[in-house]
Amino acid sequence: MTASNSPIRCLLYPSLGEIREHVRVELFARALSERMGRPVVMSMAPTYEFLEAELASGRVEMAWGTAEQCNAFEPQARAVLRAVRSGSWHYHSAFICRADEPLTLETLAGKRVAWVAPRSTGGHLLPVRHLESLGLRPDTLFSEQRFLGTYRKALEAVLRGESDVCALFSNHSDAHAMRATLTSYLGAEAPRLMPFLFTISTLADGLILTKRLPEADAQALISVLTRMNTDGAGLEMLMGPFRVEGFVRSPGLGAPVSSPRPSSGAEYLAGELDAEGRCLRLWSPSGRAFGLDVRGAEGRKLEETLGTAASKPLMSLLQAVLRGGSDGRLEYRLNVNGDERVYAAEITPCEPSPEDTGVRLGLLVRDVSGLRALEDPLYRLASFPLLHPEPLLELGMDGELRYANPATHAAFQDLVEKGAEHPLVHAALTWAWRGSPPGEPAPTVHLDGRYWELTVAQLWDPPGLRVFARDVTLRKQMEARLFQADRLSALGSLAAAVGHEMNNPLAFVLANLSYIREEMDRLKQPLLEGEPVPRGDLDGILEALGETVEGATRLKHIVQDLRTLSRKPPEHRARVAVQPVLENALKLLRGELQHRARLERDFHDMPTVDADEARLTQLFLNLLLNALQQMDTQDAAHNVLRVAAYTSEDGEVVVEVQDSGKGLSQDALAHIFEPFATARSNSTGLGLSVSHTIVTGLGGTLRAESREGRGTLLTVTLPAAVPVAESLRAC
């Protein structure tokens, strides 16, 4: 296995708890895969300790680590890429409390705190270090400490009053910027919480590229990741799981904040500002923003143009950008004409020009209310492939693997290496090439002792296949047991019917052999002494021998017919002519028919079907025996068993088995195909259930019609085999 075709495995720390974050992680992995030209597989570590153990043992190529983990593993890593947020690769931690119960450092004693996780930097380690630097010990300061796993859970615990304080990472020690972060977690509930204390900064969390990753691949990843949001791709949604706007290669623990970085975004309100928030230029497609006319705003401050409510968060962001020296982003809510809207703002330092006399900042403000309204249902839908517990993959029509969810990689670890040669991919492509009609049973793949049933859907733009793989091993084992039980039951039911059929030839075989022996004993002495033997005696012996051979041949044919039923079905289907199988089933039941009913046959030309002959024999025997057993032997003179076989208008094979028995009630008819549903004490109740399974497994249908006192009609419909020429054309 070479480095160029094996997947790059990335392990993420376990604090990503939302469905949308899981989806964004998967989107991020897919974007990386496209840019790297090889699969990038991301999975969540169950614990922070597990992630550290995987890093220490060198079993992972890449990992998203906390700030502490990045610091610890940076010396032995190929590289560490720090996350950039609001233009900085440093961040703070903010202590959060309820707005109606404000706290200060002096009033923390005896309060309850909700931490994120023991290894979470912003949610535990950084605030603890800050308190300890002030001479406060958390274990004595707080009356209760709890770890809830995610920032959202910690914030919600404070909202519900279950805790008094929690800690949240903060890109800047600014209350307005912190409110934007709170809004991204809590939406309209954000104003109920407030920050009251900020810690010192620390280097940000980020991606650790380990030495398991070849140097060339590491350099390619560094190039891709550091340019992802500055090359015009606009991958803000892909950065969503980490709440970052880009990456920068870590320059070391003592590095200053980042240098200016350009940004891309969609326009709603665009302009340029000076360091005081004065409008150098301001433009909107409609000439209006936030419900106000913004034309002629040049020379005026933002507050004069947009009003206090709209300009206050923008001025807060402007100050943060000036302090950080790089671009910044902010999302906030605003009531415009009685309607609450959501805005995303970006402020970016502009490249200086010779005529500039001061700082010049670019401004972009977008109304993202519609996007936010659609996000939750969008992520619920988009999360299905990622969180689906069973394998799901997408293929090109040439077998190229476009996407595989984590369950696929776990179940088929050699999928990437084998590509189109993998049995699962081959089965899906074969199904598609055959042009299988709707309703045809899904292909099943047997791998490493397990059975995988595939559901294959055609994709059209671009052309491809979506494949679901379901582990049906237990079902297959149960079906095998049911088939075996039914086969034994059918053989038992046949014993009486076939017994009579075998007794007749066996009786005259034995009688003839006895006659021949007696005749030979009588003629032995004359023959030995060379005396003439009457010709009539020899003719009688020869006639008896001929009848004996005929009887033995009949016995042989009966045994062969029984072997068709009892043998193990092959792994693959073949083209089977239906009429000979139906004739064999009727031959096996000749003895039973003679005592039960008169047979009426109506057979016509039919196409072949793709099936297993043993299963098909079992199917017809079950249906015929069921029909015969519905009719009493006392009415044998009047009973009729009608068997018809023909081709339907749709080109399908139809077989009808109709009896003139007592029929079924509507309640019994409703349960006729359920296992163990039977009205006869000497029946297992498996025959029709197994028959239904056989028919549906062949892509057909089995229907039952019955009226009490009128008999029962069972109708089998089977799809015709695909013509060879058509199959070749599809390939």
UniProtKB/TrEMBL annotation:
Superkingdom of the source species: Bacteria
Gene3D superfamilies found in the cross-reference section: 1.10.287.130, Histidine kinase-like ATPase, C-terminal domain, Periplasmic binding protein-like II
Keywords on record: Phosphoprotein
MF annotations from Gene Ontology: phosphorelay sensor kinase activity
Keyword Phosphoprotein: yes
Domain Histidine kinase: 497-722
Catalytic activity, reaction form: ATP + protein L-histidine = ADP + protein N-phospho-L-histidine
EC number: 2.7.13.3
Alphabetized InterPro entries for the sequence: HATPase_C_sf, HATPase_dom, His_kinase_dom, HisK_dim/P_dom, HisK_dim/P_sf, Sig_transdc_His_kin-like_C
PANTHER family with a match to the protein in the record: SENSOR HISTIDINE KINASE (PTHR43065), TWO-COMPONENT SENSOR PPRA (PTHR43065:SF42)
Protein name, as recorded: histidine kinase
UniProt source species: Corallococcus exercitus
